[in-house]
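Structure (tokenized):
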């Protein structure tokens, strides 16, 4: 949520609840007006949800940004299963590759880091995803 709010408003807010939101935002990219719809879903530690609210979100989306905290190993460890679920759900219907980016957040908290940059890069490479490390706070 912090990363989404930072993208939309250029401000950092540190505390969020476990709420799901859909945001719309216009942005000019390469001279073209692009309308973003962002479905910001808090991370659940469960695997994939039964039934299909998660499947519905996946069908709704055109691309995915999965954010983990570099200070939280569990948030990183669930990424492979989430990505496999996304690919099975999206790519099973078409031959097109689904755009997925893995983002390690809280780079400013390097003293609390438990997931190395190299681990993030290697995971993204092995799953054919993009990779960035950022700080929503900075």
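Design, position by position:
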């Amino acid at each position: 949520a912090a990363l989404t709010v930072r993208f939309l408003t250029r401000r950092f807010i540190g505390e969020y609840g476990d709420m799901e939101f859909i945001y719309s935002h216009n942005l000019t990219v390469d001279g073209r007006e692009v309308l973003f719809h962002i479905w910001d879903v808090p991370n659940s530690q469960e695997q994939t949800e039964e039934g299909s609210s998660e499947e519905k979100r996946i069908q709704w989306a055109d691309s995915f940004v999965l954010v983990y905290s570099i200070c939280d190993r569990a948030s990183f460890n669930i990424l492979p299963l989430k990505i496999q679920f996304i690919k099975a759900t999206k790519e099973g219907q078409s031959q097109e590759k689904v755009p997925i980016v893995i983002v390690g957040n809280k780079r400013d908290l390097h003293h609390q880091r438990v997931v190395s940059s190299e681990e993030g890069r290697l995971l993204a490479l092995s799953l054919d995803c993009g990779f960035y490390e950022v700080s929503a706070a900075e």
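Reviewer-requested clarification: The chain has five helices and five strands. Confidence is low (pLDDT under 50) at residues 45-50.
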